[in-house]
Design brief:
11 helices; 8 strands
Amino acid sequence: MLTISQVALRYGLSNRQVYDLISLGYLNIARVTKVNQGVRYWFSEQELDQLDIYSLVADAQARQLPRRAGRMHDWKQLSRTLSRYQRFLEDIEELPQACLLENSFYLFHLNHYAKTYPEESGSLYGLKKMVLKKMVGEYRDDFQINYLVGPDRNKVWLCEDCKDHARKAGIPYAEYARREYHCSKCYVQHLEKEYYSLIQFDLQLDQHRFSFHLPLSASRWVQDIHLLPQGIRETGNYSDRMFLYGRAVSRVEEQVYPLKMIIEGLQHYLAEDEDKDGWG
């Protein structure tokens, strides 16, 4: 693994040129580690060996010259995002729940990656469930947990009138039913009660606040679940992709908080008990 300065030295570049390659998405950050004055980026030598660095530098220069304002905007975004991460690590360093907050930060961004890459969402949400379960087990008093009641999962067979209305509106039958436009004459089969219910995990420590959600079906490990404070899940157009709750990851976030770093951080947290058990 190489740092920014080591990459620059290896290829005879300036540190700024390496930063430009990062900001344009040409270099992927493999890992971020904490140092005394902030964070340090690391790059995979194996991945670097597969790139034509000098061609990428030339392409970066060609792209940036006519768009200097855009280049500075990208650079400022990258710099601001990195500064926020550094301040966050500094803020929590002396707190007794520093481990909880750091892994909550990783979990927050894991959600965004799951929304961006649905083909990986199954494994990412599986990791989220395991991490939340461990967090709540270790820091239960720091969480406010609420039960958000949602609708049942239904299958709808549209009546002829509703089919006609859907055709005239140019809406597919399935979408028409999902938007709950169907009438009382349509046949509704109830498949699963409260399928769209959520368990909400709120964490607020110092000035830092995180909020996570799991489907009811993935939260059976929560004790006395039906005794939790209850609310109503916001109404809207529900679908079977209910797990994709939140926004997608931004391009700058992918550069500053690479998915590999997020996954490794959370897996390290999960492995801590196993390491202790091994010494026992």
